[in-house]
Design brief:
alpha/beta
Length: 197
């Protein structure tokens, strides 16, 4: 904002507690993947990262990777799912925890859990939680509620993965919808429309 770089709340808390933070500028040279291998994570969690992570990176963790997404997948895959739920006048939305991987396969290292290559946000749904959208709720207000809902669902999902009590449900491709980034051309208001048009 204002062309000034600032820390996210996660990085701010990590710095306050002397927890190392790694922010690779690129994944192309393999350095980030090698660094991750030295850290030996059991599970990777992706939340609103905004980039497609290489499969070699996602496969480093013993149990692979999971992604928290701000919609009830397969509806509103891609960017800005919360904003589009409000813009489209939806009555309900929610959060999903999904896995993603390049191919559906099992590994002798354990379970593989992430997929950004077959289609964006197209991995099997591991968990989801629905919530109503208030009649006059803004996307910002909804985002604040969904981030709490998503954090709670993430904790539950990680516990299930740890206990081996996970059911993966493939998404129905026929029901899949994609959202695009919002831009300035979408800003003009048509004052002739009713609030729900």
């Amino acid at each position: 904002r204002g062309m000034q770089e600032s820390f996210s709340p996660v990085k701010t808390l990590a710095v306050e507690r002397d927890i190392p933070v790694y922010q690779p500028a690129t994944f192309k040279d393999g350095a980030a993947t090698e660094l991750l291998r030295t850290l030996a994570p059991e599970l990777l969690v992706v939340v609103a990262y905004g980039r497609i992570l290489p499969q070699t990176f996602l496969d480093v963790a013993k149990y692979g990777s999971i992604n928290v997404h701000g919609s009830l997948l397969p509806k509103y895959r891609g960017a800005a799912p919360i904003q589009w739920a409000v813009l489209n006048g939806d009555k309900t939305t929610g959060v999903s925890v999904q896995n993603a991987r390049l191919h559906r396969y099992a590994s002798d290292r354990g379970l593989i859990w992430v997929d950004y290559y077959t289609a964006m946000d197209a991995g099997d749904v591991i968990a989801s939680r629905e919530t109503e959208i208030g009649e006059f709720e803004t996307s910002g207000e909804l985002f604040d509620r969904l981030k709490t809902l998503g954090a709670e669902l993430l904790v539950e999902t990680v516990r299930k993965i740890a206990s081996g009590d996970v059911v993966r449900v493939p998404q129905n491709e026929a029901d899949a919808t994609y959202t695009k980034m919002l831009n300035k051309e979408m800003c003009p208001i048509d004052w002739n429309k009713s609030p729900r048009e």
